[in-house]
Design brief:
Shape: globular
Largest sheet: 7 strands, mixed
Helix content: 25-40%
Structural class: alpha+beta
CATH superfamily: Gcn5-related N-acetyltransferase (GNAT)
Strand order of the largest sheet: 1-2-3-4-5-7-6
């Protein structure tokens, strides 16, 4: 059986050639040239929306998450509450990556008393999910509610996010309902 020309050449190669290949020291350069060096992600910061340009960034994130990804009609996603709401943005590396808002309710939910707020429009860009950005947004919104003397907050949670809100102390109330074509549950938390 013919082993082919390359095997034939290797068999005829001088022994010194193989000694050179196997006796060279191993050199480690410190990184794989094909893979960029790993860096820690920039920290996530949460800040109140201060001007129209920042509000436009928040609306753009909501458009990507709710209108493009979840197919919520634009007329439902944007409402008159945006003008008076307390909006926040999550930033990482100088880029807006998430948003949420707090709306003061004119009256408490049925069966509740005192001053209440509603947290909503929580949205994080897909590439930044599972990095606790939503938790940071929620904590900032709850802190603002406390600063305003709110005794409780409510929200409409998409069913896939129930466990997230439960981990933050929210309790589900009532039946499942549709909002923007997506199943939701109302959830409350006393502050």
């Amino acid at each position: 059986m013919d082993a082919g020309p390359s095997c034939d050449r290797a068999a005829r190669a001088p022994p010194l050639f193989f000694r050179l290949l196997t006796s060279l020291p191993f050199v480690y350069l410190g990184s794989d040239m094909a893979t960029p060096p790993e860096t820690s992600p920039a920290p996530v910061t949460i800040a109140q929306v201060k001007d129209e340009a920042e509000l436009m960034q928040a609306l753009a994130i909501r458009e990507v998450v709710f209108i493009e990804e979840q197919h919520v009609p634009e007329g439902i996603e944007r409402d008159a509450e945006d003008a008076n709401a307390f909006h926040v943005l999550a930033y990482q590396g100088g880029h807006a990556i998430g948003t949420g808002r707090l709306v003061m309710m004119s009256e408490p939910p049925p069966g509740q008393q005192g001053k209440w707020g509603q947290i909503g429009r929580m949205a994080v860009l897909q590439s930044h999910r599972k990095a606790r950005v939503g938790s940071k947004l929620l904590i900032m919104l709850e802190n603002e509610a406390r600063n305003r003397g709110v005794g409780g907050v409510m929200l409409h949670a998409q069913l896939y996010a129930l466990e997230f809100y439960k981990r933050h102390g929210y309790e589900a109330l009532g039946p499942v309902f549709q909002e923007g074509g997506i199943d939701h549950l109302e959830m409350h938390k006393r502050l």
